[in-house]
Amino acid sequence: MSYRLKAITREEHLAFITACPSVSHMQVPSWGDVKPDWRAESLGWFDEDGHLTGAGLVLLRPLPKLRRYLAYLPEGPVIDWAAPDLEQWLEPMLAYLKEQGAFSVKMGPPVVTRRWSAETVKAAIANPQARRLRDVEATAHEPRAFGIADRLRRMGWQQTEPGGEDGFAAGQPRYVFQVSYAGRTLEDVQRDFNQQWRRNIKKAEKAGVKVDQGSYEDLPVFYDIYVETAERDRFIPRPLAYFQRMWTVLRAEDENRMRLYLAHHEGEVLAAATMLTVGRHVWYSYGASTSRKREVQPNNAIQWRMMSDAYELGAGVYDFRGITDTLDEGNHLLGLLRFKAGTGGEAIEYLGEWDYPLNKVLHKALNLYMSRR
């Protein structure tokens, strides 16, 4: 089957993804408004009968002084990745973006390749011989993913390897941690928590930690703790305006698209986190915590409240987002992996991000620039 690709309206785009069981929050129309340095456009794939069968949010970043663009589809596009005619989906996209002046296209197929159970992750962390999660035997493999990867390579796409010692890519995370809610009660979910998690939830309750939903006016409170977290965990924080823009544009599209949670103890906010929802997929997005009063376990309390609310929203999966690939005890991110693995979910590897150089000279120059940053 051949597909025709053209720009679609935000309304058409939103209607399409609303009918899908799971779509990344980076593929909703409003996500383009979160990124003002990029020009966003909604793309639609139409079959021979004129039906909209696929959609994608593409972000176009201009090169200085040139009318050429890097085209980026984060965690997308939303197409039938298992289709035998995958070329018929992607070739019209490349042709369209080339006409728009793109010199390179980057995308993140939402295709799972491997899964590791929480027990397997725990054993890997305890094994002094294990260095990276990718080298540990997976609990489950997704055979179709390797076929998709082979087809992409034959088409000329180039896989972006996870960058840095911690395994986080320069774009979106290749490794994430998720808890499935499918066919389970909330009691079932908590029953799979490890003993430390269940104990910490009870500690927080006994200590009087209260978790409430916040509002736009509470974003500066979240931000103060977020900056403290950035200094402690050695990452560069986004500006407050970024979160204020996120709140405004995402909630204008859907009031449940973004929520803010604050964990209080004796009048002091000890932890805060944002939660994003698209259909039946819920993400823990940004988290922040102070170093004070850690003994009352505000982080476990806030996550349990968010997980409970996600369940009430009808979530099929609660997504903790990125995890480190390294199992090195000396890496400060390993504690975050331990924390997430304590929920009894599973570590998941996606197919990763892929590049297609439409102009090889400019594409190579961009890669050289990014490698020196």
UniProtKB/TrEMBL annotation:
<keyword id="KW-0012">Acyltransferase</keyword>
<dbReference type="InterPro" id="IPR003447">
    <property type="entry name" value="FEMABX"/>
</dbReference>
<dbReference type="GO" id="GO:0008360">
    <property type="term" value="P:regulation of cell shape"/>
</dbReference>
<dbReference type="Pfam" id="PF02388">
    <property type="entry name" value="FemAB"/>
</dbReference>
<dbReference type="GO" id="GO:0016755">
    <property type="term" value="F:aminoacyltransferase activity"/>
</dbReference>
<keyword id="KW-0808">Transferase</keyword>
<protein>
    <submittedName>
        <fullName>Peptidoglycan bridge formation glycyltransferase FemA/FemB family protein</fullName>
    </submittedName>
</protein>
<keyword id="KW-0573">Peptidoglycan synthesis</keyword>
<dbReference type="InterPro" id="IPR050644">
    <property type="entry name" value="PG_Glycine_Bridge_Synth"/>
</dbReference>
<keyword id="KW-0961">Cell wall biogenesis/degradation</keyword>
<dbReference type="InterPro" id="IPR016181">
    <property type="entry name" value="Acyl_CoA_acyltransferase"/>
</dbReference>
<comment type="similarity">
    <text>Belongs to the FemABX family.</text>
</comment>
<keyword id="KW-0133">Cell shape</keyword>
<dbReference type="GO" id="GO:0009252">
    <property type="term" value="P:peptidoglycan biosynthetic process"/>
</dbReference>
<dbReference type="GO" id="GO:0071555">
    <property type="term" value="P:cell wall organization"/>
</dbReference>
